[in-house]
Amino acid sequence: WATDPTAFEPLQDDTLEAMRKLVTSCRMAVPEGLPRALACLVGYFAYETIGLVEKLPRGAPNPLDLPDMLFARPTIILIFDRLADQLFMVAPLWPDTSGTPEARVAAAIEQIETHAAMLAGPLPPQSRTEVDASAIDFAPQLGAERYSEMVLKAKDYIAAGDIFQVVLAQRFTAPFALPPVDLYRALRRINPSPFLYFLDLPGFALIGSSPEILVRARDGEVTIRPIAGTRPRGKTAAEDVANRESLLADPKERAEHLMLLDLGRNDVGRVALAGTVEVTDSYTVEHYSRVMHIVSNVVGRLDPAKDALDALFAGFPAGTVSGAPKVRACEIIAELEPETRGAYAGGVGYFSPDGSMDSCIVLRTAVVKDGVMHVQAGAGIVADSDPVYEQRECEAKAGALIDAAREALRRAGEPSFGQ
Predict the structure, then answer these.
(1) 44 catalytically annotated
(2) Which pLDDT value is given to residue 81?
(3) Which pTM value belongs to this model?
(4) Among this protein's residues, is 340 annotated catalytic?
(5) Which domains does the chain have, with CATH numbers?
């Protein structure tokens, strides 16, 4: 990344309106045949971005010192369509850039030719170093006793009728001296998910394998897909079936899922035309590499007076990482959690030139900064929650990233691993 300090200027609008203007400035006609994943803006919204639309307390420290929002407008976009086995290379001509049309087209063609030559050339040599994978030690920044106190306070709020559920999170850290892309390569091998991302950002990297849509706005339709209810994958097909049946029969898991499904309906309804909100899938079990989840799908026709950014913040943050009622749960999170969440429980996504948007919840994600890896995970607290169990759930959810780090360290000496 090369950052030109002179390119920045003070905002004349509030942050959300400035973002809306940026998204609008990237709108353009898209030639037929290009993939939907063509992105004009790519980046993330931190969990604390909720403060742009809701008045919430914010006094906790930000230990990683990361921005609440960071989006990039690319000058070259490569999209690999695995189903069609095609690679698309696109150099956008943004409407608000300077220069004559002829000069801009010539510069775009040069960009494509330069990057095509890079792809056709040999891979640069990489030096690999043997690392002791067993030496990595993830340390909780909170500790089980402090987390237990948070759970008990949350249960007091539930008993008092403030909330039905709240998700409380904690952070785990460990040294990680390898290139962050090595962690991404390991993570996609051992924990493939619908949303895999590696954002190599100025001064830090965001690496994740998220199972859950945050909000999708496409073809005039808004989609939210709540996930709540978890069981581990079975070691055999029979055990897999037994775990699935146990999950669907568990009244606590079903009640929690129904609560978040209702919240998803409400969120879609905030930006959808009246009478168009529909649950197209309910209580479906989806299987991932390590766990299975109960999943439902809520859609609605986007009100023409609303745009993709409205749709995003109608469902932000997701109820599955905050709680219900959502705003009160967010207030309790701000009170009980000792530090800001940052990217965790926020959203990673992209806006397309045609006005569509796709995003996922930042889950199963690591921040790598200054040679340290940070992983956050949370558990849904309800009236009968056991603090010991919820601590274990946090550790289990962080496990995929911890295992990926160990896999990356174990394979660090292999010449082909970084290729």
Answers:
(1) no
(2) 85
(3) 0.90
(4) no
(5) 5-410 (3.60.120.10)
